[in-house]
Write a structure and sequence with these properties.
The protein is an alpha/beta fold. It contains 17 helices and 14 strands. The protein binds pyridoxal-5'-phosphate.
């Protein structure tokens, strides 16, 4: 049987001193709410008894008003669902717009917004970002996620909830999860940290926002890898920082080029394990140069280690943070790749002397992460499911990557150069032809391909190519998807 949502009370304006009869006031309120689309067809109406107790009138005027609304076809009675807004309202009845409908903005005069907010691009300019199709970047193989285990842990945590766990949690995050993460990072990523330095955040995006607010000022200069992660660039730009693009080559961010351009930058944002989007790994000598530059110039390094769990040809590379003896690295990690993005959980490892500052900044942002999911995740890690899941996914993604690379090599040959495929869940294709990548990415949407144009991630002179995610593309879909890409590259 279809379940019907319980009725939500609409705003019924009652004025006891008004000459208008109460039943008429109730009738008018409902009618107006239906005509203005504040109540929609099929929506359940509260019973007369509930409404009477909520608005503090007797049931008689309500019965009267309901009877009239039923008679005029605004309401209908449904077996098992009580009274609902009629599903067959004439169009003209609901076509007159309420005064606060979106298009009224055009008539309301100048609508000033903060100077910086228009710097962010509109999502409609990037159809490949919202399209679901093969090669979607950042999508994980969720069908492999141990949902049965997760559900058991969720149920167990829910059963154990009490008044204390239902109250605000710690701003830094759950102690159990911070300890579990610190243990994992020390072992698997050679991060120098104690649980006290770990702050749980709602994804690495929030980590970036907090780090920027704590460390940087409007006008601060920030090195960014070019090409680089646009959502990081947007955080810096929105906070008034000046982004200094620094080119990336086969060894990662070119530190010497950065120093030449802007030695005194206040920070550098880097993805050393698997550069986004080119996928290269920062070499040991560049890492040492970067750490040395930060110490010499009193700058910060923001290390985004977003998908370091997946390396295929070689052993995992230790974090940059672990190399730095001067506590100049703010380390950011996320569960978006290794588990799934809607979890919205990530973490910051903060230098010990800055923990208080980050803590207080977090306070004004969101009063901390949701407790329940943190506790579930802590159990998931501590009980060994996390490590097991990573091991399984490493094998699966490694296999997907192998099949994809071999199909791309066979079908596209010299049209493209494949880069950055030794780690992570995406690879980059550099176009060796004179195609425009944005134009092909747009056409690809119509062929159920979700390929991101590489040029979009350059801040200076763009190169043409694509970013292809392989996390959620099934093995048997790969040949057909690569054929489609070939078709797009060989037709107009
Ligand atoms: C470079 C980079 N960092 C971080 C993330 C993940 O961000 P979040 O943890 O906010 O989901 C992504 C996701 O695609 C990414 O590409």
């Amino acid at each position: 049987m279809k379940r019907v949502a319980s009725a939500i009370l609409p705003i019924i304006a009652i004025d006891r001193k008004a000459p208008k009869a109460l039943h008429r006031q109730i009738y008018d309120s409902y009618r107006a709410a239906i005509v203005d689309c504040r109540l929609h067809p099929g929506q359940r109406i509260p019973s007369t008894r509930v409404l009477a107790s909520e608005i503090g009138v007797s049931r008689f005027p309500i019965l009267n008003a309901y009877a009239q609304l039923l008679a005029e076809g605004y309401f209908e009675s449904r077996v098992g669902a009580g009274t609902v807004v009629s599903s067959s309202l004439p169009d003209q009845l609901t076509s007159s717009r309420p005064p606060n409908a979106p298009h009224s903005a055009a008539r309301s005069g100048p609508r000033a917004v903060a100077r910086r907010s228009p710097i962010l691009p509109g999502i409609e300019a990037m159809p490949w970002m919202v399209n679901w199709g093969a090669f979607r970047v950042g999508q994980v193989a969720f069908d492999q996620f141990p949902l049965h285990v997760w559900s058991t842990l969720v149920a167990r945590q829910c059963r154990g909830m009490n008044a204390q766990s239902a109250h605000y949690g710690s701003l830094m995050g759950s102690t159990a999860l911070r300890e579990a993460i610190a243990g994992y990072l020390k072992t698997a990523r050679s991060v120098r940290c104690e649980a006290e330095q770990v702050m749980i955040v709602n994804g690495s995006q929030q980590a970036l926002e907090i780090a920027t607010r704590v460390l940087l000022n409007p006008g601060s200069r920030v090195w960014m890898e070019d090409p680089g992660y646009r959502l990081a660039r947007d955080v810096f730009a929105l906070n008034g920082c000046d982004v200094v693009p620094v080119r990336v080559d086969t060894e990662g961010l070119d530190v010497a080029a950065g120093i030449k351009k802007c030695r005194k930058a206040q920070a550098a944002f880097v993805t050393p394990s698997h550069q986004f989007p080119l996928g290269v790994t920062m070499s040991a000598s560049r890492r040492l140069q970067l750490v040395d530059w930060a110490q010499q110039s009193g700058s910060w390094i923001i290390e985004d280690d977003y998908d370091s769990e997946y390396r295929f040809e070689s052993l995992p590379i230790a974090s940059l943070q672990g190399l730095d003896a001067n506590s100049r690295v703010i380390y950011i990690g996320t569960f978006s790749k290794v588990l799934f993005p809607s979890l919205r959980l990530g973490y910051l490892v903060i230098p010990p002397d800055l923990v208080d500052r980050f803590h207080m900044c977090r306070r004004v942002m969101d009063l901390g992460p949701p407790t329940l999911t943190q506790e579930v995740l802590a159990d998931f890690i501590v009980e060994g499911h996390f490590a097991r899941h990573i091991r399984r996914m490493r094998v699966l993604y490694g296999e997907l990557r192998r099949v994809l690379v071999s199909r791309l090599t066979e079908d596209l040959g010299s049209m493209v150069e494949i880069v950055g495929d030794e780690a992570g869940m995406h690879l980059a294709l550099m176009l060796q032809t004179d195609h425009r990548d944005t134009e092909i990415s747009q056409r690809a949407v119509r062929h159920s391909l979700s390929i991101w144009p590489l040029s979009h991630f350059y801040f200076g002179e763009p190169r043409q190519g694509f970013i292809l995610g392989f996390g959620a593309t099934k093995m048997n879909e790969i040949p057909g998807a690569v054929r489609k890409l070939h078709y797009l590259l060989t037709t107009k």
